[in-house]
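Lab notebook, bench 4. The sequencing result for the construct came back, and we need a structural model before the next group meeting so we can plan mutations. Quick request posted to the team channel:

Model the 3D structure of this chain.
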Amino acid sequence: MPLVASLAVVVAAVSWASTEKPARPKVLGISHVAFRVSSLTAARGFYEDFLGYKATSATAGKDGPEAPVLVPVNDRQYVELRPGLPPEDDRLDRATWRPVGWRSRRAS
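Done. Here's the predicted structure in C-alpha cell form:
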C-alpha cells in the first residue's frame, strides 16, 4: 500500500509540474530576417528597383563578393541578404524576434 501511495504522489507531482508553462518574453515583432541568395545583384535589384528600398553593405569599407547586404525596412527592422545559396538549401537563413525590453536585456 505505501508503494501505491508513493506512486500516486509522484504521478500527481509530475502532472502538476507539466501544466506550468515557462515564462516567455512578449514579442513586439520581427527584428530582422536573413536570406541566402544565389545572386546578390539580382536580389539587391529586387529590393532596390522593384520595392524601392536602399540596400547597404553590412561591412562598411570592407565590401567584397561574399559581404552580406542589409536592406533597412524602417528604424528597427531590416532584411539581410547573404550570398551562397546552394540549390538544395532553403533560402531562409534566420529570423530574429524583437521582445519587449530588448534594449535593457541587451545592455546587461
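The mean pLDDT is 77.
Will bring this to the meeting.
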